[in-house]
Write a structure and sequence with these properties.
heterotetramer; A: Serine Threonine Protein Phosphatase 5, Tetratricopeptide repeat; 8 helices; about 0% strand; globular; B: Rossmann fold; Hypothetical Protein Tm841, Chain: A,domain 3; six-stranded mixed beta sheet; about 35% helix; binds adenosine-5'-diphosphate; binds magnesium ion; transferase (chains B, C); ATP-binding (chains B, C); DhaK_dom (chains B, C)
């Protein structure tokens, strides 16, 4: 896959993600009303529409495109999700400077997880997006580096892993984010940010599979 | 649910337009949701700024003016403003002596302000410091939470820091009094009904006809406890006790109080609450030096109130009594 | 419906207690629902008083203070105060130069004030005059109605008459400017939801999920027309047109405006309305000299707003700009 | 009937009226919500409870007692009904200075009607309490003065007349009171003040009949 094809794939992926978030806007907001402040759907939808628009005006390397998307999210999403999604994409995009390869995508994924954990001061088990990102990244890395699977297959496994991460957020008590204010009452509700993370990964897989 | 709005997406923009139309001493930074004093940056003083999600009016831009804020950034409803706009605001309010930010303790606000401070330092070499206000005693500050939330006590921090900035205090002085205020203030809120965001158009949470939520946040985040409806006196006792337990004041202490409306509760009822609050403080030998009653930090159309108590000393009294002239609060000499 | 109250019968009494507890510059006349300046009667000026049913807070007692009222009588919720209390208030505010009353045009208010004026003249030989404010353009002033109602324009009358009294004007001067203000002011209101009185505990009137009431009064009296919900811009156009049609201003005129919240509507939405109001005035070549946005004359927890426009001249501008310091309105020099 | 018996009868009547208004409080408020401001029931109930209390502490002539009741109403009812009910009782009580006779009660009734019309600037047909008072007073006067009926019988006819007056308020448009703001929309609703007037007359009749 040459750089141009890679860049096109990124355009397509962001478009698919934006469409998916538009569809899931209400569902995400409903999840956020139960344990947060009922805006996660609107935030993510607004952010990815903006990212899509900016990418339509942008040509360039994969790294530049991902960074542009990240900047768009930082300036449009706001709330907790803005700096977490946007800032992490911005940082992690540096790992794609040599293009998209099995190696660089693993580095990208690790850097993304690291940045979210740092900015959010969150660890796995806090009932946040980290719970979806962690199993996805770990599974991806293991599949590529240890099992020598090709990236597409590895991504498929990562999506399954993220799904289990999302399911895992439901029965646990929140330690970070607005849901933490609820104390024990947060148990039994699925985390919105973990859920939107899963949607993005699903769309990434769908576009990569084409 | 019916609202006096046009498109939900336009509500923050249109509100800000209506606001600067009403208050010619305010100006909007073009292409942003940031409002500043018309004469910003003011030279010879530290710029004082704040910001956060919309839906808490008159917070935040309503406290811009002499003796309080120089600028305020409005995010989407209940969503932190973005880092790029916060950074623009910080730079627009720097008259050469740096800028001090009042941030409420929400992860979104804190992370965006942190990013903005880095950006302003990098882009314009601006000297920036901030305080993170966390006065909400409803939330346990423990390993298991994101820490206490910033709620109505923030208004006292705006006032105190604003007076210190107006009197020529430097960033360190402002930070000292802002932190002092934050350490000595506690707030607890409750809701009779949920707020309705323009975007969702329906109650954020469901409360039964006979239920109330204690320890409610200002974003329609569910509170800490749901109980049967009680009388105003009982509710006041509950809130006041929670705040006083947290502050642990000695008899004879002087305090300032706020009975804050959440937006949908009539002023009549806030005065009913203030009556009992002052009785309770009196019973404990606490001396109310100033009592505010009104809508200071709202949650859209939510019905309910919060009670804030601030322990005073001579410095805080002087700073609270200093003149201020803003749309949301005026103090005359 | 849930309310922050104790017994409905006690709500006015407890509100007034909470009010004087918050504002030490106010004093309650013992055994009455009358609130006066703590230093009343003020010698060397005409006493200015007002009053009416409760449930419109900060109206009425919230406008007591330097540059505005000397006293205000609170009736039961939405019920005129009784003549004996009005008479006590008048006598308590007479510093020797007589008393001027601002009365809203409701039969109950007018009849009780009339009786009170007779009583004060008889009992204490007090010099008393009054103005009857009727700014509500929603009501046709004809043989078939009790005449136009007094609504939010009353606040402008309080301000103007208060400034004239503070500057030493005699009763005749005060009456002249109060009547001038009343002649030049128009208001029209609307409701998204009904208010709920403490006593009844249920909506006074039923509005469908998609209905609004135009020309609403401030007592939950049904308005003049019921329509489908419209956007904030359309509602603003409707109200503004009704007011401007009534006032019939020449292009180039200067005006002061109020976007008044009915109690349950968030400030955010009032600013959205103000944005469109100022655009409309601008389109017609009218020049807004001052724009107020907030809860000035409420109807308990009703959601909705009213729009008030006052045509200015130099005298009215001076009187509006004169300093005032009250719980509900502060104007600084 | 001597003065003392007359005074006792007045005590009893006010007690019966107060009880009746307590019972009808919600109904009167409902009528007032439809075309007014939903307080007529509370106003009248509060007023008559106060009148009852004051009368319990008062001895005296019929005229004094009625005046005391009027003063209590003026100081407790507020709104439009306060000066109308209370002020009119105060004025009309002067006609009872020579005790309660067929003659003085007619004068009392006429004076009461006159005072309400004057204070309220209202005429019959305006959809107010005047529409209940007018037929009652006219019928009473005719029955006593022209037909020579005894006062009790005349009072019975007056109550029937008032009832028709109340019914008459429903199909007409209001010209006075808050209902007038409704314009044509006031048609079809029964006037609260006319209704409370009827209740008071019914209780008066019941006590007089005992
Ligand atoms: N400190 C944190 N670390 C990691 N993720 C977080 C943190 N705080 C919140 N989140 C994630 O962000 C999501 C909420 O995003 P959003 O609703 O857009 O922001 P806000 O909470 O400011 O309204 C949560 O569901 C959670 O997954
Ligand atoms: N101008 C008037 N003349 C005669 N009766 C009136 C007048 N205005 C009101 N009323 C009577 O008073 C009743 C309303 O009383 P109430 O509800 O207690 O007072 P308010 O209208 O001040 O709330 C009406 O139903 C009507 O019968
Ligand atoms: Mg959220
Ligand atoms: Mg949010
Ligand atoms: Mg009334
Ligand atoms: Mg009424």
């Amino acid at each position: 896959m040459d750089r141009e094809t890679q860049s096109e794939a990124i355009h397509e992926a962001v478009e698919a993600m934006a469409d998916r978030l538009a569809e899931e806007k209400e569902h995400l907001t409903d999840l956020d009303s139960a344990i947060g402040d009922a805006d996660h759907g609107a935030n993510m939808n607004r952010g990815f529409q903006a990212a899509l628009e900016r990418l339509e005006e942008t040509d360039g390397d994969p790294a530049e495109l991902v960074k542009t998307a990240g900047v768009a999210l930082v300036s449009e999403v706001g709330g907790a999700a803005g700096p977490l999604y946007g800032g992490s994409l911005m940082k992690a995009s540096q790992e794609l400077e040599d293009g998209i390869t099995a190696e660089t995508t693993v580095a990208f994924a690790e850097r993304y997880l690291e940045t979210v954990e740092e900015r959010g001061k969150a660890s796995v088990g806090d009932k946040t997006m980290v719970d979806a990102i962690t199993p996805a990244v770990h599974t991806y890395k293991k599949a590529v580096e240890v099992d020598d699977h090709d990236p597409l297959e590895a991504l498929g496994k990562a999506v399954d892993a993220a799904e289990r991460g999302v399911a895992f957020t439901t029965p646990i008590r929140a330690k970070k984010g607005r849901a933490s204010y609820l104390g024990w009452r947060s148990v039994g509700h699925q985390d919105p940010g973990a859920t939107s993370t899963l949607y993005l990964l699903e769309e990434l897989l769908a576009v990569a599979t084409e | 649910m019916k609202k006096l709005i046009n498109e939900p997406e336009a509500v923050v923009d249109e509100m800000l337009e209506g606001m600067v139309a009403a208050h010619p001493e305010l100006r909007r930074l073009e292409g942003t949701e940031v409002v500043v004093r018309d004469d910003a940056p003011v030279e010879g003083k530290v710029g004082l700024v704040s910001g956060g999600g919309s839906g808490h009016e008159p917070t935040h831009a309503g406290y811009i003016g002499d003796g309080m804020l120089d600028g305020a950034a409005a995010g989407e409803v209940f969503t932190s403003p973005t880092a790029d706009q916060l950074s623009e605001m910080i730079q627009a309010c720097d008259g050469g002596d740096g800028v001090f930010c009042v941030v409420k303790n929400y992860e979104g606000d804190v992370m965006n302000f942190e990013t903005a401070v880095e950006m302003a330092e990098m882009e314009a070499d601006t000297d920036v410091e901030y305080v993170v206000v966390d006065d909400d005693v409803a939330v346990e500050d423990s390993l298991y939470t994101s820490g206490r939330r910033g709620v109505c006590g923030t208004i006292f921090v705006h006032k105190v820091a604003g007076a210190m900035a107006a009197s020529g205090g430097d960033i360190a002085e402002i930070k000292r009094v802002a932190e002092k205020t934050n350490e000595r203030v506690g707030t607890m809120g409750m809701a009779l009904t949920s707020c309705v965001t323009p975007d969702k158009g329906e109650p954020t949470f469901d409360l039964g006809e006979d239920e109330i939520e204690l320890g409610i946040g200002i974003h329609g985040e569910p509170g800490t406890e749901r109980t049967e409806i009680m009388s105003a006196d009982e509710i006041t006792e509950h809130l006041t006790e929670a705040v006083l337990e947290d502050l642990d004041l000695e008899s004879g202490s002087e305090v300032a109080t706020i009975v804050n409306g959440m937006g949908g509760t009539p002023l009549m009822e806030l005065y009913v609450v203030n009556r009992r609050l002052q009785e309770l403080l009196d019973d404990r030998g606490l001396d109310t030096w100033d009592a505010w009653v009104g809508d200071y930090m709202t949650s859209l159309d939510m019905m309910g109130c919060s009670i804030t108590v601030l322990e005073l000393d001579d410095e805080l009294k002087d700073l609270l009594a200093a003149p201020a002239e803003t749309p949301g609060l005026t103090v005359t000499e």
